[in-house]
Amino acid sequence: MQKESRIRPAGDQALLVEFGAEICPSVNRQVHEFTRRASAHRISGIGEMVSSYCSVLVYFDPLHLSFSETASWVREFLNPQLLETGSPSIVKKIPVLYGGEFGPDISFVADHNQISVEEVIRLHTGKTYLVYVVGFSPGFAAMGSVSLKIQSPRLATPRTRVPAGAVGIGGRQTGIYAVESPGGWQLIGRTPLVLFDLHKDPPSFFRAGDYARFHAIDEKEFLKISKSGLQNGDS
Question: The domain containing residue 182 runs over which residues?
């Protein structure tokens, strides 16, 4: 078991598996690989497993398993060699219309970092991002990390309504609001893809552990994709 990995009680029906305290790709990959392996070998009494940036919350039924029995089961999947050799994820490509009414904060991001709007777009589309977590609101994907040159603070006062498909930057992270919701990230663009659909299985386009890469489109392409009805999982 890795030195960074710790198992702690989280109430009388759950335990917390901690892989470290730093938000970084290597730790997050261990989180997802542990969750994948443990889920594939789930035993009676083990409930939902909720992954985050650096930890996994494992629920168990105290009528079937004790804390020590659950912890013993968890340790079977904390082999560092196994956690470092997970199967690679595919890279999901996301079209984005940057700036204008769809990216009202892109000028702030540019000014804050003393670069041009064009440079913000170039840097944002120039990396492949690891999806650390999916949550906060249905389908919301928090990814990282963006270039130092476009990192920007969250809004002092969050918006009460952020439209579905909005792409934002919050500190070191970038992310997409899959459904309309409140939000405090700097909005730099919007994707025409439908990223959360309750009629699909799974309903969310992203899963934690996926990789994403953005590419810029113009308004004509945005409208074309919107009218075509492309949704999560379509191509």
Answer: 91-228
